[in-house]
Amino acid sequence: MANPLKGEVIRLYKNLLYLGREYPKGSVYFRERLKSAFMKNKDVTDPEQIKKLVARGDFVIKELEALYFLRKYRAIKKRYYEPEE
């Protein structure tokens, strides 16, 4: 792996690991899936391919954040508004 991109990959892994703590199926499940995804692509050396994989990882981060915000919104809505029947 090229040195300039190594930092990006490590940053991505750490961010995903941090976000995985609140994953609905559990942090252990998320960590195992994350590790397998990174190990699957560990032999990629083409810088363009690595950039594409990092971009996909950034997309996953945005999706996880949206999932967490939606979960919080639903909890607040459920707590403060009465169900309409």
Automatic annotation (TrEMBL):
Coiled coil: none annotated. It comes from the Eukaryota. GO terms for cellular component: mitochondrion. InterPro entries: Complex1_LYR_dom, Complex1_LYR_ETFRF1_LYRM5, ETFRF1. Pfam families: Complex1_LYR. Residues 8-60 form the Complex 1 LYR protein domain. One of its GO terms (biological process) is respiratory electron transport chain. Belongs to the complex I LYR family. This is LYR motif containing 5a. The lineage of its organism: Eukaryota, Metazoa, Chordata, Craniata, Vertebrata.
